Structures are given as structure tokens and as C-alpha cells.
Amino acid sequence: MIGRGLLAVGLLTASTSATVYFKENFDEKWESRWVVPSKWKAAEEIGEWAHTAGEWFGDAADKGIKTSQDARFYGLSAKLAKPFSNEGKDLVLQYVVKHEQRLDCGGAYIKLLGPELDQASFGGDTPYQIMFGPDVCGSTKRTHVIFNYPEAKGEEKNLLIKTDVPTRTDQLSHLYTLHIMAANNSFNVLIDGESVREGPLEESWDFRPPKTIPDPEQSKPADWVDEEMMADPADVKPEGYDDIPATLPDSEAVQPEDWDEEEDGVWEAPMVDNPDYKGPWSPKMIPNPDFKGAWEHPHIPNPEYSPDPKLHARATEVTAVGFELWQVKSGTMFDDIILTDSLEEATEYAKETFWKKQEGEKAMFEKAEEERVEKEKAEREEMKKKAEENGEPFEEGDSPFSVSDMEITEDEDEDDEDWEDEEEEEDENSFTMEL
Ligand SMILES: *[C@@H]1O[C@H](CO)[C@@H](O)[C@H](O)[C@H]1NC(C)=O
């Protein structure tokens, strides 16, 4: 009896012993906790972080940080109270990203950094353990999930996920969550609480050598028939086929009256296409009865392969989090960062922050969009009127705003490739936005 009682208590404690290693909601004192690198780039190349709720928000008093200058590098890092190693533990990294500017090219990812970090010189070359979050440039739009894996076979130790994970590029806040599960070495990436990619870590990154290799003892038999189709032996070239000329002298042409044979030479009719000419002969193709299908190289277990039971332990010794970004057009906001070993903890934090603000932000954004569209319409009308008064033609292109700027919703954006790499159609549908 006593034994059972103790066990129950033990389980209870296990489920409530979540640790939060880092949490940041960017209150008024945020600058005392974060360091902008002074030795990474020349001062004029470094962009300034604004402390603001943004242009649309759910709570004016709840601010985040925002990139505020175009074509700049942005650096920022903050230390954890105590280091985090996730061996034998889950890892949950979650934060909120909002691209207010209609992001064209820029990063918005976060990095987990180790003890070698010097905050003053933190930048793109600083080693990291995990890099997670949106990265957009032109048609390349993805949510990076990169793990440093010192045991990787190749030169490159920072491993990208093999199939790109989609991202969101609209102008509203989105919650990005990376969950690494220790119990079964698997992962889940969620956007706004919905999974966009999950599975075993081993299969989604090239951590380990492949489990099987083509059997070097076997090769394609010499008599293997590769050709699926063959020329029909019953189809022979008709008699006289090659005698049909491609062109003929034009029978309707007549020698001009003023033709002078002495000066112009003997008159010849111009050549025209021969309607009977069918091109070079080729036999009809029929299925090859000897075709056995493509030869498949038999696989054998790879002697170089071994599993890594600690694949999940990608945070070896995280001591800081940081942003190290390049943005062509500024206006990306970050807020509500949490690093913990418990998904419940992160979900709870999102409830208190992201989800509370979402409705208000969306309503405010929609209102701002309506006003913007109205204003643009009025300005276009004004331009058109002026053009007419001056007797000049007015074209849509003369508008101060491009057509794509006028599109309000993501759905209407035909170039939108956000979900191109999505494997499952249902996922795509479930993320269709109705703004
Ligand atoms: C790993 O375990 C979690 C929690 O039990 C489960 O939701 C997930 O599907 C598992 N992943 C794999 C790849 O088995």
C-alpha cells in the first residue's frame, strides 16, 4: 500500500516539475536584460530595435520589439538564469513573430546559444545549438529548424530539416513553437498551435548515415531490358516513301513578262511545301514484351549506420538566446519568448499572451487595411481627375501604389508560395486565412 502511494506521488511531481529556462515579454525594463552586439558590424549597419506594440495590437500597453530601419543587420542576445541541457528532457522553444511590413526579404529566427558566446561580438558566425523560425527572401519562404550536430558525417554540422517547413508571411502575429520530445526522439513544429511538421528526428534531418545502402555485390544484369517501348517490327516503310520531296516548284507561278533570260538567267518557279510530304519515316512504337520494369538496386543494412539514442539532446548547454538577422524591409516584431522543458508550460504562457491579444489585433488590422484601401482609392481618383484635366491618359500603373499592394488577403495573392512545400493538402487547407 505504502509503495503504491509513493508511486502516485512520484508521478504527480513528475508532471508538475516543469522548468522555465527563459521567458521574455519585453516590458519596460527589457533593455537591462538584452545586449545589442557592438563588435559584430559597423555601427551604421546595425539597425535599431524599437520598443512598441506595433501598428496593430491587442493591447497597447503590451509591447514587443520591432526592427525599425531598412537594409540593416539586427543583433540581440540575452542570458538564461541557468544553463539548459535537454538530455532526457523535452525542449520547447516558442515565440511570437509579426511582420507588419509585408516582409519581402528578411530573417525572423531565434537562436539558442552556448557558453562560447561573447554578447558584444554575437553575429552570424557565432556557433549555435538550435536555430528556429521564419526566413523569407523572394519566393523562398520557410520556417528554419536547424540543429547543430557535431557527430554529423559531412563538413556541415548545422543541419537543415530535409523538407522545408512552411511559414506565415501575412501581417498578423503568429505563434511559432518547436517541441522536441525526449521519450521517442521526435519533434513537432507548430504555428498558432497547429502542427505543420512532425515526426522522428532521425528521418527528418541527415543526422545519421542512411540505414540501408545499395548492395555493392549486385548490379543490373547485362540482359536487363530497359526499354518500355519498341519499334513495331510489322510496321515497314512504305515503298517510295523517301522519294516524296519536301518542297515542289509552285505550279501556279508564272514567269514575269519582263523576265530577261540573258540578264536574269533561266526562270525557275519558286518552291512551296509539298502537302504529300510527311517528314522522315519512323516506325510505330509498341510496348516491349521483354520489358521487366526499371531495375531496382537491392538494399542491404548500412554497416556505417548506428542509431543515436540521444538525438533529442540538441540543447547541449544553452546559456543564451539571440536574434541575428538581416532585413531588407524592416517592421518585424518579436514578443513572448519562452524556453522550457514542458509543452503545457508553453501552451499556458501562450494563453496568457498571444491568444489573449489575437482577436483585438486582428480587428485593428482589418480596420487599418480598410482605411488604407479607402485612402489609396481616393488618391487614385484624385490622380485620375488631374490627368483628365490635363488631357493626359491615366493608367493603373500611374497609381502611387502597385496592384499587389492593394491586395488585402493572403488568399487573393496568387504568387503566394507559403504552402508550396507542404506535404499534406489538408494542412494547407486548414491554414487558409480569412482576413
Ligand atoms: C512521440 O511521442 C509523442 C507523445 O507521446 C507522440 O505524440 C508522437 O506522435 C510520437 N512521435 C513519434 C514519431 O512516434
Outline the structure in words:
There is one protein chain. Residues 1-14 and 402-435 have low confidence and may be disordered. The strands form five sheets. Strands 1, 3, 4, 6, 12, 13, 14 and 22 form an eight-stranded antiparallel sheet that branches. Strands 2, 5, 7, 8, 9, 10, 11 and 21 form an eight-stranded antiparallel sheet that branches. A two-stranded antiparallel ribbon has the order 15-20. With 435 residues, it is α+β, with helices and mostly antiparallel strands. It has helices spanning 2-16, 201-204, 261-264, 343-352, 354-389, 403-406, 425-430; strands at residues 20-24, 34-35, 49-52, 64-67, 72-84, 91-99, 105-107, 110-113, 128-137, 140-148, 158-160, 173-181, 186-191, 194-200, 212-214, 229-231, 247-249, 271-273, 285-287, 299-301, 318-327, 332-340. The chain has a domain at 4-212 and 313-358 and 412-428: Jelly Rolls (Sandwich). Helix content is 18%, strand content 29%. The longest helix has 36 residues, at 354-389.
Quick description:
By secondary structure, the protein is an alpha+beta fold. The protein has helices at residues 2-16, 201-204, 261-264, 343-352, 354-389, 403-406, 425-430, and strands spanning 20-24, 34-35, 49-52, 64-67, 72-84, 91-99, 105-107, 110-113, 128-137, 140-148, 158-160, 173-181, 186-191, 194-200, 212-214, 229-231, 247-249, 271-273, 285-287, 299-301, 318-327, 332-340. It is flat and about 100 Å long.
